[in-house]
Write a structure and sequence with these properties.
By secondary structure, the chain is mostly beta strands. The protein has no helices and seven strands. A hairpin with a 2-residue loop joins strand 6 and strand 7. The two termini are 24 Å apart.
Length: 103
């Protein structure tokens, strides 16, 4: 599912970059942002059809993460299990406002 709008980065085999593609898949849009225990940042991203949870450790805010904004992200995919629920989660490494897509 994620591979439809993610590609491997030249930085290494375990880092993925969300990018606009020529097939018209949109940039990730920030749906929700919240802080976790005053120490970390949790976000929900969407391409309009699917959702992806993201986490940024040791950071409680980021200027590019605003609801309804489009972003370029670099992340490491990981499996997260919390309170009996397992999900794919993006461990966010870098975020910036999308240069080619705006809200």
């Amino acid at each position: 599912v994620i591979s439809r709008y993610m590609r491997r980065s030249s930085a290494g085999p375990r880092i993925w970059v969300a990018r606009y593609s020529q097939v018209g898949v949109p940039y990730p849009r920030v749906v929700e942002v919240r802080d976790i225990k005053g120490a970390h940042l949790k976000t929900l991203l969407s391409d309009g059809k699917r959702f992806l949870s993201g986490v940024m450790w040791r950071q409680t805010s980021h200027p590019a993460l605003k609801p309804n904004s489009y972003v370029d992200i670099v992340f490491r995919p990981e499996v997260s299990t919390y309170q009996g629920t397992t999900e794919l989660q993006a461990n966010l490494q870098a975020i910036e406002p999308s240069r080619e897509h705006t809200a």
